[in-house]
Design a protein that fits this description.
about 400 residues; OB fold (Dihydrolipoamide Acetyltransferase, E2P); 8-stranded mixed β-sheet; 6-stranded mixed β-sheet; 8 helices; 22 strands; binds S-adenosylmethionine; transferase
Length: about 400
C-alpha cells in the first residue's frame, strides 16, 4: 500500500529524502518539496507517483531514463541541477570549516562524452540499472559523442565473441579505441578481430593487451598530438579537458617553472609548455612515455621533463618544490594528501588544484588552508552531465 509523504531534501546521490516513522528513506527521482506516493520495499523506497510536483522538475530527454542508472538527474530543471552540483562541492568544504563559494559553473558537456564504459552481459549492453547489479539494455545513449552512436551494438558484438565483459570506448582522431575487460582468463582475443573492420575501429585490446590495431588512437592537446596508451586516463569530454586546461593555464599565469603533478598523458603540461618549463609526474609509465614522445614532436614548446613517479609514496619533497613558481595537482579520487603535506611544509605560494572528488578535495584544501593558503577561486566544471559527479578547479595562494 503506497503512502504519501513530503520530500525534505536531496541526498548526495540525487535521491529525495523522506522521513518515515523517524527513519530516513531515499526515494529515487523525487525532488525536494514534492508530495509523493512511495512504496517501501525493505530498506528501499520506490516512487509510485508524484502527487504535487516541484517547480524544479524538468523533462528527461532520454528514453532510458529511470531504468538505466547512467544518469540520475535528468528530472532536475537547469537552475536546480546547477545548484545541486554546486552543493556537492561547497558542502564538504563547509564540513572542513571552509566557507568557500563556487564562483563559476562551467557547462563542459560540449559534443558529449568521448569516453564511456558499457557493460556487455547476456541480457544486453548498457550501464548498470540504478541500485542493481543488472544491466539495462540500451539502444542509444544520447550523452555520448555522435562517433560513439554504435557503442551498444559494438558491446553486444563483443559479448557474442568473448562472453560477458566491460567495454571501454574512446572516440579519437583515428577512430574508436575499444578496451575489453573480462574475468574469463582464456577469452580468445581472435574472436574480436573481425570487429575492427566491421565497425571501423582504430584499436581493440583485451585485458590491457593489444589484440589488433588499424591506426594508433590519438588526440590533439594544444599544439601537440598524443598517442593514447591502452588504459591511460583521459578526461571524459573534450570540452572539459579544454575548460580545465584553460583554467589551469590562466591560473598559472606568468609562472616560468611549473610542476604538473598527476599529469596523465599531459593535457595541462602540453599547453603550459607553450609559455613555461614543465616538470610532469604521473605513476602511469605508458602515459608518461606518450607525453614525452608528444612533447618532443610538437613544435614551439619549452622544455618538458616527464618522469614516472608514485606521488602517494614518493611525493615531491618540500626541498624539491623550492625551484617551482607554481604547482598544478590533478589527483585521482583518493586525493593528494601526501603531496599536499609536502606543499604545506614548503615555501611555495601558488597551487592550482583540479579534482573529481569533492570530499578528498575538501580534506586537501583544509591542509593547504592550515598552512596559510587562501582558496582564491573555485570553479565547477560539469563534464559528467546528469550524473552526481562534478569536477572542481581551484586556485590557492599565500
Ligand atoms: C584525474 S587523472 C588526471 C590526469 C591529467 N591531469 C588529465 O587531466 O588527463 C589522475 C591521474 O593520477 C594518476 N595517478 C594515480 N595514482 C597515482 C599515484 N599514486 N602517483 C602518481 N600519479 C597517480 C593517474 O595515472 C591519472 O593519470
Amino acid at each position: 500500500m503506497p503512502l504519501t509523504t513530503t520530500i525534505t531534501g536531496l541526498g548526495h546521490k540525487g535521491e529525495g529524502i523522506a522521513e518515515i516513522d523517524g527513519r530516513r528513506v531515499f526515494v529515487p527521482f523525487a525532488l525536494a518539496g514534492e508530495r509523493v506516493a512511495i512504496a517501501i520495499e525493505g530498506e528501499r523506497a520506490v516512487l509510485v507517483e508524484v502527487v504535487e510536483a516541484s517547480t524544479d522538475r524538468g523533462e528527461p530527454f532520454c528514453a532510458h531514463f529511470g531504468t538505466c542508472g547512467g544518469c540520475q538527474l535528468q528530472h532536475l530543471a537547469r537552475p536546480a541541477y546547477e545548484a545541486f552540483k554546486i552543493g556537492l562541492i561547497e558542502t564538504p568544504l563547509r564540513h572542513q570549516g571552509l566557507d568557500a563559494v563556487v564562483h563559476r559553473f562551467i557547462d563542459a558537456v560540449g559534443a558529449g562524452r568521448r569516453r564511456a564504459t558499457l557493460h556487455a552481459r547476456r541480457e544486453g549492453a548498457g550501464y548498470m540499472r540504478m541500485r542493481s547489479h543488472e544491466v539495462a539494455d540500451i539502444e542509444r545513449c544520447p550523452i555520448l559523442v555522435p562517433a560513439l552512436a554504435r557503442a551498444p551494438e559494438i558491446a553486444r558484438a563483443v559479448e557474442a565473441g568473448v562472453g560477458e565483459a566491460d567495454v571501454a570506448f574512446t572516440a579519437t582522431l583515428a577512430g574508436i579505441d575499444v578496451g575489453v575487460r573480462t574475468e574469463r582468463r582464456r577469452a580468445a582475443g581472435d574472436k574480436l578481430i573481425p570487429l575492427l573492420g566491421r565497425f571501423g575501429l582504430a584499436r581493440l585490446s583485451l585485458n590491457s593487451e593489444l589484440v589488433v590495431q588499424a591506426a594508433p588512437p590519438r588526440v590533439a592537446m594544444g599544439r601537440a598530438d598524443v598517442e593514447l596508451p591502452i588504459g591511460s586516463f583521459l578526461q571524459a569530454t573534450e570540452a572539459a579537458e579544454r575548460a580545465l586546461a584553460d583554467y589551469v593555464c590562466a591560473a598559472v599565469g606568468k609562472a616560468k617553472i611549473v610542476a604538473d603533478l598527476f599529469c596523465g598523458v599531459g593535457p595541462f603540461t602540453l599547453r603550459l609548455a607553450e609559455t613555461a618549463r614543465v616538470l610532469a609526474h604521473d605513476s602511469d609509465r605508458a602515459g608518461i612515455a606518450a607525453l614525452d614522445k608528444s612533447a618532443r614532436h610538437a613544435s614551439g614548446l619549452k622544455q618538458v621533463t616527464a618522469k614516472a613517479r608514485d606521488l602517494f609514496r614518493d611525493p615531491l619533497t618540500r626541498f624539491e618544490l623550492a625551484g617551482f613558481d607554481c604547482v598544478v595537482l590533478d589527483p585521482p579520487r583518493a586525493g593528494a594528501e601526501a603531496q599536499v603535506r609536502e606543499i604545506a611544509a614548503s615555501k611555495l605560494r601558488n597551487v592550482v588544484m583540479v579534482s573529481c572528488d569533492p570530499r578528498t578535495f575538501a580534506r586537501d584544501a583544509r591542509l593547504l588552508a592550515d598552512s596559510g593558503f587562501a582558496l582564491e577561486d573555485l570553479v565547477a566544471v560539469d563534464q559528467f552531465a546528469w550524473s552526481t559527479h562534478v569536477e572542481i578547479a581551484a586556485t590557492f595562494r599565500r
